Structure formats: structure tokens, C-alpha cells
Amino acid sequence: MAKNRETTNELISDRSAVNRACLGADAPLCVRQIAITDAEAAARLSAELGYPVSPEEMQKRIREVANLAEHAVYVACVANVVAGWIDVGIVHHLQAEAYGEIGGLVVSSEYRSLGIGRKLVARAEEWARSRGVKRMIVRSRIAREAAHRFYLREGYERTKTSAVFSKALA
Questions:
Q1: CATH topology (fold) of 15-153
Q2: Rounded mean pLDDT for each run of 10 residues along the chain, 170 residues in total
Q3: Separation CA 119–CA 127 (nearest Å)
Q4: Which pLDDT score, from 0 to 100, does residue 28 have?
Q5: CA 170 from centre of chain
Q6: What confidence score (pLDDT) does residue 2 get?
Q7: Helix H or strand E encompassing 129
Q8: pLDDT of amino acid 1
Q9: Cβ atoms within 10 A of the Cβ of 132, count?
């Protein structure tokens, strides 16, 4: 499979390379692709979202998604501190035209209401648009009313309410 690195064919694992990935790393806010060195911060943010995971497992996931051509994860950094991330992918189903889907978005409680979520969503939409996708969707739990208001402000429309079913495969 083709790798999903925009500027390099290697997963960024060196902290100075990560800082260079943000042109002008001294900028107050930088959005860049996730790096393996972001695993601990990404795991902490995932727990804030309600999905706890160890930093080691997060490293594994970062490595896996780095190899998916139709998947990207971006982080937002404030003064080189990871303040949020967004996970986006292109979904293909027989019954519908391919679409972009935000699989997860989280901004640290310390950095909310500063426009970081808006920048991450804009970057995900830009990524999807550059791949020919004409529609984005996001799924959000019923209880996450603040998230719903955020997406509505960002131009998303509530299009349906669904039940989600899952089954463990052993």
C-alpha cells in the first residue's frame, strides 16, 4: 500500500524533524501529520475523548494508519505541545459515492474554544477535497451536545440519527 506521508516516505520519529514539519515551529498554532513521537499525547487525548489506550498501543496505531493511502491523522500543536488531533478517512460503500469521514476529533480541555478544532476540521476537509471527495460526514454520540453545536457551526447538517451495533469477533 502507498504510504500517506505528504512530505516524506518515512514515519517521522525524530522530535526535531517533527518540529521542522511545522514551518515556523515557533508559530502559536501548527497543524501537521501525526508522528510516532506524538503517541503519548495522542493516547492522553484519546482518553479525554472516552477511549483510553496505552502509549504503546497508540504507537502501533500510528504506524498502521501511516501506511493507509486513504487515511490521515493530523495534530494541532500550540508551542510544540500537541493540543488536539483529527482522524479522517475516505469511505467506500457500494450504495453511495465515496465520502470523507471524520473518525475522531479531540482538543485538550486546556485548549478548547481557541479555534483549534476548527483548524483541524478545515485541514481534514482540505485533505479529503484534494482526493476528489465531495462530501464529509461525522458521527457523534447523542450525549455530545457541545460537539453537535460545534459541527453545526462548521457547516455540517444533522442528516440522521442511527443506532450502532457491534459484535466482538473472536
A1: Aminopeptidase (3.40.630)
A2: 41 50 64 97 96 97 95 95 97 96 96 94 97 95 91 94 90
A3: 12
A4: 84
A5: 28
A6: 43
A7: helix 116-129
A8: 39
A9: 9
9 grid coordinates:
516516505
* 133 Cβ contact list (under 8 Å, min separation 6): 90, 98, 99, 100
Cα–Cα distance, 104 to 74 (Å, whole number): 11
Supply 146's cell numbers.
Answer: 457541545
Q: CB-hemisphere CA count at 13 Å for 117?
A: 21
Q: What's the rounded Cα separation, in Å, for the pair 55 and 36?
A: 10
Cβ-count burial of 5 within 10 angstroms (0-12 exposed, 13-18 middle, 19+ buried)? middle
Task: Give one DSSP letter per residue of 77-102, joined into a string.
Answer: EETTEEEEEEEEEEEEETTEEEEEEE
Helix%, strand%, coil% for the chain, nearest 5: 35, 25, 40
Question: CA angle, corner 84, sides to 81 and 88, nearest 5?
Answer: 135
C-alpha cell at 123: 485541514
